[in-house]
Amino acid sequence: MSNAYHDTPPPTVIGDGSLSIELRDALTIPSTSSNGRWIHVGRPNTPIVHVKVLHGSGDIIYRNLEADDSRIIILLEDANHDPVGDLIITGGTLFQVDSDQKLVHQGVGAAKRLHKFGHPGAGPDAFRVKSIEISKTTSPLAQFKVTAPRTSGDSQEYRIMIWHEGD
């Protein structure tokens, strides 16, 4: 993998604060859940090749230029630290967002990311990212994990940036 992925805008960005996912290519929104999970499928043959996680301050807190076969688990919580959802993101044969709830298409995202989806959380109440864990799909061991401090219900404004093969 070349460093060119690092120098180009990411085609997929996941933002904290009432979680949003902006993508270049749309996700297929399933009409029904499977075993209580909603599997949103993206463009075929889009392995994840580079992942970067930023804190709201702009600091890079994780970067992996060899992120093939990655699994990203995001846990969500409300202001009382009660769980309100989770997502599991993988790329490979299919880029996939496995969510506890059906994602909502929210229109157009930022430049180069034409589709924006949101997680409904716990209805109208605010929620945030509780933790982000990144591992290989072939290993239960986390390569990276960050948990938001419990001292505040405020969002840490994490951003997960994903580059795919061929981008």
Structure, described:
The chain is built from 1 helix and 13 strands. The protein is mainly β. The protein has one domain (4-164). It has a 7-stranded antiparallel β-sheet, with no helix packed on it. A hairpin with a 5-residue loop joins strand 11 and strand 12 (142-147). The longest helix has 4 residues, at 4-7. The N and C termini lie close together (11 Å). The mean pLDDT is 87.
Mean pLDDT rating: 87
- Category by helix and strand content: mainly beta
Helical proportion, percent range: under 10%
Beta content? over 45%
* Major β-sheet strand ordering: 5-4-13-1-2-10-9
CA radius of gyration is: 15 Å
Uncertain ranges: none
Summarize the helix and strand pattern as letters: HEEEEEEEEEEEEE
What's the number of domains? 1
Number of helices: 1
Number of strands: 13
- Main beta-sheet annotation: 7 strands, antiparallel
Shape: globular
The N- to C-terminal Cα distance equals 11 Å
What brief labels describe this structure?
single chain; 167 residues; 7-stranded antiparallel beta sheet; 13 strands; 2% helix; globular
